[in-house]
Structures are given as C-alpha cells and as structure tokens.
Design a protein that fits this description.
- The complex is a heterodimer of chains A (117) and B (113).
- In chain A, 0% of the residues lie in helices and 50% in strands.
- Chain A contains no helices and eleven strands.
- The termini of chain A are far apart.
- Chain B is mainly β and 113 residues long.
- In chain B, strands 2, 4, 5, 9, 10 and 11 form a six-stranded mixed beta sheet that branches. In chain B, strands 1-3-8-7-6 form a five-stranded antiparallel beta sheet, with no helix packed on it.
- In chain B, β4 and β5 form a beta hairpin.
- Chain B starts with a strand and ends with a strand.
- The chains are: A mainly beta (117), B mainly beta (113).
- At the A-B interface, β9 and β10 of A face β4, β5 and β10 of B.
Amino acid sequence: GAVVSQHPSWVICKSGTSKGIECRSLDFQATTMFWYRQFPKQSLMLMATSNEGSKATYEQGVEKDKFLINHASLTLSTLTVTSAHPEDSSFYICSASSGGPANTEAFFGQGTRLTVV
Amino acid sequence: KNQVEQSPQSLIILEGKNCTLQCNYTVSPFSNLRWYKQDTGRGPVSLTIMTFSENTKSNGRYTATLDADTKQSSLHITASQLSDSASYICVVSDAQSSYKLIFGSGTRLLVRP
C-alpha cells in the first residue's frame, strides 16, 4: 500500500511553545489529508480535514487558531500546535487520501506522540 | 451517540487459537466498512475494506464479514500469532457526511504464548 510518513515520531516541548508535525505522502499525491488525535485507550478523533491549496475544515470543538494546519502541496501537510499546554499532550495521527471515488483507501502515518511539560 | 460499537472491549487468547471480533454500526447510508490493526504507539494499518454489496473479504489469516441488513460486521483471526496483539478498529465511511470515517473504539487483543 501507499506510504504516509509523519515526523517527528515523538516530541517533548515546554508549555507555551509551538510545535509542528509534518505529514508526507511519499508515493502518491494526497488531495486530502486528515488530522486525528488519540488519547490512551480511546479511538481516533478527527480534528480537521485539509485539502491542498485551501483552508482546513475543523471539527466542532477544535480550535483552529490553536491547531494550525497548512496543506501547501499535494504531498505535505503540517499541523502546528500553538501555545502548547499539558492538556494538548496526545498521540496525533495523519492520514492521506488521493481523492476520487468514495472507496478510496486512506493511508495513515505512524503517529506523533506529543508531550507538553 | 456511538455510531460504531465494537465488542468485546478487550480479549485475551492463547497463541494458535482463533477469535472473532464484532462490530455493530448505525451509520446509514454508508459507503464502506474497514477493519484496521493498530499496534501500540503506531498508526492504523488497513486489513480489509468492504462495500455494502460485499459479504466477506480475506487478507491472509484475517477474514471480515459484513451483513448490511443487520448492520453487523465481524473480523475473524485464524491461528493467532503473538504479533496479532494489537487494537483492531472497525471504521465506517459515512456516505451522507462527505464519506467521513466513523471510528469504533476498538478491541484490544492480547495473544499469549
């Protein structure tokens, strides 16, 4: 299957700082990328959907000014957690889709563990 | 409102044994139903994807079934291996909501030697 790479795999940052997470589709053009957050022993929660070249669509309850998403190219989307707070500590996962028919497979990155201290 | 419910929440089996995981959903209409395997600290990996017209799909030792009438799906794992220890997530694509993926909470499987 297609490869989606996230970087970094884990990161620790201080409260109040900002941290970016990259999501790259390595062997296909991703017209749509999704960002999820996952807390321990819980399922993935969709945060936002981003389409290349346009503004991201955020799910209800997700602060767009806190979780900045940039999808500048067909192979790269970036999630930036701004003014990080310990409650933002979580596992962040991206997925990428090449669009097309609804049955198009979505490929997930390996996830990024963010710890805010 | 839980649109995708999985059972059991967790399961422990001995290596070599078979097991079946259940998924009930209320998402309607749906485009497709997927099963993913997620190792701890990793992203989900696709096992199977079925449209509403498909009843069964296999991927090696994994066999998924789908009954669109009763809105139930199952994932059967044959001859379990230690490496099968993971969370198994049932995901339904919502055809009325831009094909948004609706995730179940997963079944945590532990295979013991």
